[in-house]
Write a structure and sequence with these properties.
single chain; tRNA pseudouridine(55) synthase activity; 3 domains; five-stranded mixed β-sheet; 300 residues; Pseudouridine synthase; Archaeosine Trna-guanine Transglycosylase, Chain: A, domain 4; alpha+beta; RNA binding; tRNA_psdUridine_synth_TruB; EC 5.4.99.25; nine-stranded mixed β-sheet
């Protein structure tokens, strides 16, 4: 079984679940999980966890993300993108400067209402399932962060604006496009979406499924997988002495007297723990007062 994270380039037409299913067939292993959904018509970076790295899925979902999107002004749809049913059309009267000011005004903290066409659950049912039945339910706004938003290209003739957005987890770019259009009083929706970065995973290093299949057939796939412990480069490394490794093999706590050295850990809450043979065990939290390490996430 392969353990690690693959930086997958999800192509249009695939759901995130499709990518996982394809990888299970390519790699001949079941323990695979993605780190956050991308709409079928969206493309770009989708980190996928293999083997024991699936325990990382929730941690990677929390990472900040970067997108490039095309905002179409003058139109609203039920899905907030061009794949949906058109609800309204309107003349775009705002000039270039007004459009730019409206877009940039969304930088910072922002209360966003999740769209009905989303995978969020209400009373045990996904919102998009209810939406397909013609039902709309009350949703609460959620605080998201737009850390940076930049205009990359204006197409004034077609009322399209290509933007780059750096944002927090849980941000819907479709809804951002919708809200920008609402602010400009002409309506707006998303025409296309490309995710270019998730945490440390960049689109320049991503692989399409066909490329992954080729590397797997050549026996070269392992070289493209990122080891689990590489996801914590800023965490100090702690090595447990051979005679005390029984504690970490059983997922138990241990003390500073059980490790080979104590430098660089006094001011660090979390560390990477290895056994005497340099096998990565997991992430532990260090309590300086009691000089004890307690397990947070195990990757045995």
């Amino acid at each position: 079984m392969i353990h690690g994270i693959i930086n997958v380039y999800k192509e249009k037409g695939y759901t995130s679940h499709d990518v996982v299913a394809k990888l299970r067939g390519i790699l001949k292993q079941k323990k695979i999980g993605h780190t956050g959904t991308l709409d079928p018509d969206a493309e770009g970076v989708l980190p996928v966890c293999l083997g024991n790295s699936t325990k990382l899925s929730d941690m990677l979902t929390d990472k900040n993300k970067t997108y490039e999107a095309v905002l179409l002004l003058g139109q609203t749809t039920d899905t907030q993108d061009v794949t949906g049913k058109i609800l309204s059309t309107c003349e775009v009267k705002a000039d270039k400067k007004q459009i730019e000011e409206a877009i940039l005004s969304f930088e910072g903290e922002y209360d966003q209402l999740p769209p009905m066409y989303s995978a969020l659950k209400v009373s045990g049912r996904k919102l998009y399932e209810l939406a397909r039945e013609g039902k709309e339910v009350e949703r609460k706004t959620r605080k998201v962060w737009i850390y940076n938003i930049r205009i990359l290209e204006f197409d004034e003739k077609n009322h399209e604006v290509r933007i780059r957005v750096e944002c927090s987890k849980g941000t819907y770019i479709r809804t951002l496009c919708h809200d920008i259009g609402a602010k400009l009083q002409c309506g707006g929706c998303m025409k296309s979406l490309l995710r270019t970065k998730v945490g440390q995973f960049s689109i320049t290093d991503s692989l399409k499924l066909s490329e992954i299949n080729e590397k797997a057939a050549e026996g070269k796939l392992l070289a493209t997988c990122i080891p689990v412990d590489d996801m914590f480069p800023d965490y100090p490394k702690v090595t447990v002495k051979e005679e005390y490794c029984k504690y970490i093999y059983n997922g138990n706590s241990f003390y500073t007297k059980h490790i080979t050295e104590t430098k660089n850990i006094n001011n660090q809450a979390q560390v990477r723990v290895y056994d005497w043979n340099n096998h990565f065990i997991g992430i532990y939290e260090f309590n300086q007062k009691d000089q004890i390490f307690k397990p947070i996430k195990m990757f045995l």
